[in-house]
Amino acid sequence: MSKKLGIIWFFIHFALEVVCYQFYTQFFQNGAYAMVLMIVYDVLAFLPQLFIGGFAERMEKMQVGKIGAMLVLLGSLSIIFSGGQKLIIAGFVILSLGNAFVHVGGAKATLGTCANKISPSAIFIAGGSFGVITGKLLGSSGKPFLIGFVVMSAGTLLMFVADKMFERAEKYIPLMNMADENKNVGVVIMLAFFVVGFRGLLSYGIPMTWNRGWQENLLLFCMMGVGKALGGILSDMVGAKKTALVSTALSLPFLLLGDKVMWVSLVGIALFSMTTASTLGVLVSAVPEHPLTAYGVSVAGLLAGTLPVFFTPVKNFVSNAVFLSVLTVICFAALAYIMKKDVKIKQTGG
């Protein structure tokens, strides 16, 4: 059941990011306040997930995903029945908040039924990368916003199916068995948070002179999505620590050598993205009775790593090869320290 929920939520997540990024790209990309609104979007879509997750853990019957979907669709109506720029901005704020609720809904469905598997959540998360680039391409090409609205409407209908499946599914405390129990829980959470943040920051500094058009950008986001999903699948198959450390170590030479060679770079990007599942699994392992809060911490870490790149000097500094190498080594060392040695465990849950 958990695998099916992961796949269904992949498409829901895809639909969510399609409408959100078409909204932003189509209506704010060329505005003087575009960067400010992108920061607003990131803060409203990312940070509240920490608090929504904690609240949803206490209110088990809360239909958190559906609440988010309704907010996203409501915000979208500000475009379809636009009454002016102020109304569109208000709709954008509502849509951004709805995005946060939907993400927590996906985490609740996949973590709550996964037992000790991280792949359902990884597959759910991966859907966002495909949705982001689809939404960006729809928005930049001026396609009717109704397309994104219809896609999200379909995603909302899928959510009703997923929620019915979740109600029937056996629930588990997600025992990922990834964090080293001999390490202080606070230290594990802090280091995992920083790894997420560092990786988010580094993603903006990857050298990619080959990325010159929409086709290359499409491949870039697709490989990100593939890497996120593959990281979870391989963690379940061959071990989380092995997957995290090997992918982190191998990503650096591919990224540095792939500046002008697209396929070399894309392999590095897929490897680079694989630690998404590992860090989430470590955080959930640290506080297994609070999986949605753990998920919120991982998203907050991503926000912390993303915000500095809105300032040009920081972004230029991040692209330095030495900086990329040093932070990658730090991430590798942190993961090696906080992750438990891979052991064979009985796989339960569907």
Helix-strand blueprint:
Layout lengths: L1 H27 L5 H13 L1 H11 L5 H17 L4 H27 L7 H22 L5 H23 L16 H18 L11 H25 L1 H18 L4 H12 L1 H12 L4 H16 L5 H7 L2 H18 L12
Helix pairs in contact: 1-4, 1-5, 1-6, 1-7, 2-5, 3-5, 3-13, 4-5, 4-7, 5-6, 5-13, 6-9, 8-12, 8-13, 8-15, 9-10, 9-11, 9-12, 10-11, 10-15, 12-13
Descriptive notes:
With 350 residues, this protein is mainly alpha-helical. The chain has helices at residues 2-28, 34-46, 48-58, 64-80, 85-111, 119-140, 146-168, 185-202, 214-238, 240-257, 262-273, 275-286, 291-306, 312-318, 321-338. Helix 1 (2-28) runs antiparallel to helix 7, helix 2 runs parallel beside helix 5 and helix 9 (214-238) packs antiparallel against helix 10. The longest helix is centred in the N-terminal third of the chain and has 27 residues, at 2-28. The radius of gyration is 19 Å and the shape is globular. The protein starts with a helix and ends in a 12-residue tail after the last helix. The model is unreliable at 345-350 (pLDDT under 50).
